[in-house]
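Re: the request from the purification team.
They wanted to know what the chain is likely to look like in 3D before they choose a buffer screen. I agreed to run a prediction and write the result into the notebook, where they can find it.
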Amino acid sequence: MHARTLFDKIWDAHVIADLPDGDSLVYIDLHLLNEVTSPQAFETLRQDGHGVRRPERAIAVADHNITTGDRAAPLEPDSREQLDALERNVAEAGIPYIPLRDPRQGILHIVAPELGLVRPGMTVVCGDSHTSTHGALGAFAFGIGTSEVAHVLATQTLVQKRPANMRVMIDGTLPTGATAKDLALHVMRELGTSGGAGHVIEYGGDAVLALGMAGRMTLCNMSIEAGARAGLVAPDATTFEFLKGRLDVPVGAAFDRWCAHWRSLASDPGAVFGRTVTIDARAVPQLVTWGTTPATALRLDDPLPSPDAEPDPGRREQLTQMLHYMGLRSGQVLAGMPIDVAFIGSCTNARIEDLRDAAAIVRGRHVANGVRALVVPGSGSVKATAEAEGLDAVFTAAGFEWRESGCSMCLGMNADRLAPGERCASSSNRNFEGRQGPGGRTHLMSPAMVAAAAVAGRLASPQDVR
C-alpha cells in the first residue's frame, strides 16, 4: 500500500461508501451537542419522523449561552429557551447529558477530552467550528452545520468531500516567553485567513512535539481561523500519558494494545502532502492582534500597517475598515494602548495550564483601576483543580472575577459581553466585529499577556510588569 498521512488513515478507516459525485459517506464516532445548534436539528428529526441512531455515541453540554456568574440566577429568555430545548431533546433521545450544575460541566471542547471521550483515530463532529481542538489527540474533528447535525443524529454518518492534506512543520525551540497561543497566532498570520482552505493541517516538528496537550489543543483549535477543515497532531507518548486513566479509556493490557495501534496512525515516511509550510519556532514572538481577523497579529512595538501602502484595492479597503472599527491609526504601536476588560477563558485557553501561566503574572499584583478582569475556567474540573492549587485566591486577591465554567465572553451570546467601544485583552480565538458584543474591540493574545494587560491597564508584555 502507498504511503499515507495521518489524515488519510483516519479517513480511509471511516469511509462507508464513495458516492458518484465525488463525495463520501463517512462514519462518525463521536457527536458533541450544544444548546445553540442542536434544537433546530432535533426539530428536523421530528418533522421527518426520524429517531437518533446511536445516542450512546453522542454527549451534550450547554456552554455558549449559559451564565458564568450565579448559576441560580435566571438566564436571559433566549438562553433559557435554548437550554430547555436541549434538556428536553436529549432526555427524549436518551443522549448522555451533563447538566448545568454538574461538577463536570464546562466547554464541550474541554470537557470531552477530560472525560476520555476523544481518542486517536476517531472522527468527531460538533455544531461548532472549534471542534478542530480535538485534533490535538490525533482525531479528525471538525465543525458542522445544523442540517448536518440532524443527519448525524439520524444516521451516525455524514456526507463529506475529502479534504486535501497540508503539513505545517515547526522546528526549533520557542523563545522564552512565547507560548502555544503565540505560535498559533504566528501560524495564522503566515497562512492568512484562507491559507488552509480545503485542507486538513497536520502539525509536526520539534516545537510541536515539545508542546503539552494543552498547547497542542490551542494550536489545533485555531486551525479553523486559517480556513482549514481541521488540525491534527500525530499521537505520541504525550498523547498516551494524557489519556491514561481517564474515565472512558481502556486500562491495563488493553490500553497498551490501543497505544500500539494509535502509534501506527502517524504519517508514513514518504507520505505526500498537497502543501507544506515550514516555520522556525525561534522566530515566534509574543503577539497581539490589532484588527478583526486572527491573522492580524503583531509584536507590541510593531507599527500598524498603512492602507495607503497596500496596492490591492480590496485589501486596502479591509485595512481601512479594520483600523476604523478598532479605533486605531496606521503607524501606531499597540504597546501602551489602554484596555477596559481583560478576559481569560474560552476553548482556546481556559485549561489549568493557561490559568497557571496567568496566575504567575498576577500573583502579588492588582488589576489596574478601571479595568474589569475575568477568569473563566474551561470546566468544573479545571475550576476544582485551580481552587485546590489556590489559584482562585491569587486571582481574586488581584481583583479578578472568578467565574463558573462556560464560553463566557468569547462570544456575545450570554450575559458576559463587551459594551460598544470597550477594548478587551482576550485569550479567546476570534476578534471579528461584534464577536464579544456589538461594537466591542478585541485583541487576541496568550493568557499571560492578558494577565499583564490587566495589571498594567494597557497592552503590555509579562516582562513589562515584572
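For the purification team: The first strand starts at residue 15 and ends at 18.
Please add any questions underneath this entry.
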